[in-house]
């Protein structure tokens, strides 16, 4: 530890105390796998214990002070006949932007707030009194008291650093990659993102990705996926749980997401894997949850403070969170379905046709193409976004886009890089030459840089901030703006304003014609239900997103009374119900999202007794088609649903 560097950073840091508490552990008790939710000082008040902090074991006793970084794992074991008591001081430190160029370098290679070190204090009275006073004042929960606690922390740090300089100390270099590896192995059952992992470990996403890839050989999220797939493969062979249950037990929001990941990494669908009784082929270097790591829930302390509490995905809105209960809510619980309708590639029981491409190029007839090679760069333009003004190229040539690929395709631009396009997506064929960068929330910065983009369209606020370091980034808050606002914003960014207006006009005209077709065919008094789920429960969709939005909001079709009064009138997104009460929500026609491995309901008595099923009025809509909210997909969804209804047997 370089003391000059250590003191320099502390002198420039802005510090906030997060919690001060006294912890008592009785004899033969232990604190197991507690992960520090912030940088921490641990001051031993009384007793002796074996303490293991992130793999470093120490025998500590009264007046010992230990420091650990955010995300480090703490284990404490108390021997028979003794008890152990310590003061835990949690704090958050931020180093403001400074003209000094050496501070960012110090933070990068030896962040003092993440370092592990300790000392046995010889002149312990000042440290003990300061820790005790911090605890007492903190309990008062008063504004002035909290300010005083902050000053006491600085006194504590001063006394501690003075001891360290005089007496010497034990240190351990923080291995962020190993910490991240252990964190992912412990947390794979839960919702985990690159951002949440970096937050838990107190580092940036880019820095963590680089360290992890250098040590492990793959990105953190790909590592996590392999762990989840391995565990899922074991459960498929060792249990009779359905795909939805297995998905939830290994950290996926639904069976569809698991099915996609499983097939991609194992080369076979989960259902076929189970039926053929294949054995898991585990790579020798594949980290297994059983290989030296305890898998259990970490009990994090929760803090109300918003700049501290570990969030899932910045910019997450209610639609995204609601997806956890639905099939239509895939992709690591980050995407919300705000529109759904129809297109080619997905079969319906009524032998529906898709009606050709969802949109013909930029609304004027041509297929989507890259910006012309001979278009001269005439400078830049300024685009106003919710994150501020962004200067973009006059005519972007190398565009990357997250999730909203169909909007870009519809405007006549072929992106060079995209987030993954699901099977059945309306634009799947149009982006086959584009580089797949994986799920939009997990793009690797190095892979992005290799594509040399001149414009990046992001679906997340955090991604826009990260990607803006590489190229101009436009954040599109698609869940908070209308379709018209979204298409026009992207049109401005691509210098395709005229095309955007034409695409919107074509979409509106198609909807108008589709509504009239349904009215002419007698569907004005028919009721439609939109379901997702299987034997355990069924999610009934309202009008706010997904295929429900297309059916009830766009096409103005009627909902059954149960759906109308129980979901739509309450302005909620959906309702999860048991199959026993499903008849209350079932309409004359049922649309059900489908995916490989979903439950077969043909033998379910309740399902089979529904009039819509008996009358062959079941429309199966491929999940990948209904997932996307862009205007290209929206038109395809409309076409699919309308054609499926018109082609279904009439009552």
Summarize the topology.
Layout: H1 3-12, E1 14-25, E2 30-35, E3 39-46, E4 49-53, E5 56-60, E6 64-68, E7 73-77, E8 84-94, H2 102-110, E9 116-120, H3 125-140, H4 143-167, E10 170-172, H5 176-187, H6 194-201, H7 205-216, H8 220-238, H9 243-249, H10 255-266, H11 270-276, H12 318-322, E11 380-385, E12 388-393, E13 399-401, H13 405-410, E14 417-418, E15 435-436, H14 445-450, E16 455-458, H15 461-467, E17 473-475, H16 483-493, H17 497-520, E18 528-533, E19 538-541, H18 546-554, H19 561-568, E20 574-577, E21 589-594, H20 605-609, H21 611-614, E22 618-622, H22 623-627, H23 631-647
Parallel strand pairs: 13-14, 13-16, 14-15, 16-17, 18-21, 21-22
Antiparallel strand pairs: 1-8, 2-7, 3-6, 3-8, 4-5, 4-7, 6-9, 9-10, 11-12, 18-19, 19-20
Helix pairs in contact: 1-2, 3-4, 5-7, 5-8, 8-10, 9-10, 16-17, 17-23, 18-23
> What is the CATH topology classification name of the largest domain?
Jelly Rolls
Low-confidence stretches: 279-358, 360-376
CATH classification class of the largest domain: Mainly Beta
Order of strands, widest sheet: 1-8-3-6-9-10
Number of helices: 23
The tally of domains stands at: 4
- Straight-line distance between termini: 80 Å
Oligomeric grouping of the chains: single chain
How much of the sequence lies in strands comes to: 15-25%
Strand count, sense and barrel status of the largest sheet are:
6 strands, antiparallel
